[in-house]
Write a structure and sequence with these properties.
Layout (H helix, E strand, L loop, with lengths): L9 H31 L5 H28 L8 H7 L11 H28 L3 H24 L5
Helix pairs in contact: 1-2, 1-3, 1-4, 4-5
């Protein structure tokens, strides 16, 4: 077993970095969805949702940077083209969404997909003894589960 300069198995970190690239691509699509619904939301809930969507896309932008930097830390180049993002995306693409419930449902669907990817990375990072990636995924999961709960509550639904 070959260890890299941060003490992790080189082969396992390449696999984790590839999974993180998938997460990065999906986060970029999620981010663009949030920008779109922020710009296009209409109706009586405009003021509340416009602000909330900005909060979410600002947070997503920070996470995109954190994921890319973690990929670099693991010795791999992060994906950085829209073609790469769309090819790897599992998150639904929201186009021309201006209705409040459709926008919130898009967020829930997107976070549900992101959580699946993050849980798989969490399992692999644990096996690889990669505390940096593990901690990042754990933090993302905790925060996104709460966001799903809040969005579902707004929709009048349960998790």
């Amino acid at each position: 077993m070959t260890l890299n300069s941060i003490g992790l198995n080189t082969e396992m970190t390449k696999e984790l970095a590839n999974d993180l690239n998938t997460l990065l691509a999906n986060f970029q699509i999620y981010y663009q969805n949030l920008r779109g619904i922020h710009w296009n939301i209409k109706g009586k809930r405009f003021f509340d949702l416009h602000v909330k969507f900005e909060e979410l896309y600002t947070d997503a932008n920070v996470k995109v940077d954190e994921i890319a930097e973690r990929i670099l830390t693991l010795g791999v180049t992060p994906l950085h083209t829209f073609e790469d993002y769309t090819n790897a995306a599992k998150v639904p693409v929201g186009k021309n969404i201006s209705q409040d419930e459709k926008a919130v449902n898009l967020i829930v669907e997107s976070l549900t997909e992101l959580l699946k990817i993050e849980r798989a990375i969490l399992d692999k990072s644990d096996d690889a003894n990669d505390e940096g990636t593990n901690s990042m995924m754990s933090d993302f999961i905790t925060e996104q589960e709460k966001t799903v709960w809040m969005m579902k509550a707004w929709l009048g639904e349960t998790v």
